[in-house]
Amino acid sequence: MALVRVENLEKSFKDLKVVKGLDFELETGRCVALIGANGAGKTTTMKMISGLLEPTKGSIVFEGAKQGDDHRRLIGYLPQHPVFHDWMTAKEFLEYVGKLSGLGTKEARERAAVLLELVGLEDAKNRRIGKFSGGMKQRLGIAQAIIHRPKLIMLDEPVSALDPFGRREVLELLDRLKQDATVLFSTHILNDAEEVCESILFLHNGVLIESGTMEEFREKYHQSKIDLVFNQDAKVYLNSISGNEKITSIQIEGNKASIFTEELEGVKDLILSQAVKDGWPLTKYEIGSISLEDVFMKVVQK
Q1: How far, in Å, are 34, 199, 249, 263, 289 from residue 223 at the CA level?
Q2: Which strands make up the sheet holding 152-156, listed edge to edge?
């Protein structure tokens, strides 16, 4: 069942059209990733869904709501660059936000206590936010976004500025949150989306170029991949096999290359024999399957 339906959504700033006719649905109880490079229109799209920006054209309709209804109470939103009162403690801040969200004093206090434990900040509840690490602030930001029990949790690039440890903390938290609500988060880090999401929306230059579940993408773009790493520029060595009909495509980046095929055995033998014949200076040879990043590159290049 669709919690939110987005139809023909557009946003222009003067003569610049940033979002161009988006159509998609967010299903209840799913974690959905809005993926795209910087400037693809992710933040603008999320701000329109959250009610922070008025669409130039199109509609956003929540389940059970009428066109034009105020749906902000159904949404918990964490912007890409959240701002906190650094002089407050985490406990004070959550209780303050809870009251702003319409909770009574007692309920705000009880809800803050529950969420501080959920996001792993129970031991730091009386510490001033100005002393928090980046990961701690993001977890506190998620807690404030869900304090009023929203049906849709929206997180704009929640892990892009974090170190590996902070990213891991937030991703594990997202995995827990999707059990109780629909989660939409934007990212340009595709591995994160692949880890925690069931559905993907690919945005490129303001256009939704592909959407579906992870299972659908794996079936549609199923291919084998052979990753090679040379001790010098890979292009010099791969010219000899680039025209082979068994090879679907080759992606080269410096001394690294990925070779895609639907005929793994034949291409594997081709590469190994050519490597021996020409003395390829290989430092890595690995067989795998197509990743979400590979899918994104393919749909962008269509």
Answers
A1: 24, 20, 11, 9, 6
A2: 75-78, 152-156, 182-187, 31-35, 199-204, 207-213
